[in-house]
Amino acid sequence: EMTSSLVGSEMCIRDRSTIAKHYFGKTSSWFYQRLNGNRVHGKPVSFSKTEIEQLNRAIQDISDKLKAVSL
To answer: What does the H/E/C string look like for 18-60?
Structure first.
């Protein structure tokens, strides 16, 4: 069971669509565009200050999950 939990946590980190959906309620494209500073409709996009705070909380949550399954 510990192994499946660890695999699930690793997948959460690697799979941007899971992060986008679970923590932001958005698509993986939306997340990727902001993460990489892409242009959307000719304008550069980035995370807002609130979204950066939300991303920090998401990273902390993922970190906590990984710590809970460390061997």
So the answer is: HHHHHHHCCCHHHHHHHHHCCEECCEECCCCHHHHHHHHHHHH
Angle at which helices 49-68 and 2-14 cross, to 10°: 160
CB-based contact 69:1 (threshold 8 Å) = no
How confident is the model over 5-40, as pLDDT tens digits? 444 555 555 677 888 999 999 999 999 899 889 999
Q: Are 2 and 10 in contact (CB under 8 A)?
A: no
pTM here is 0.72
Report d(CA 40, CA 18) in Å as an integer.
22
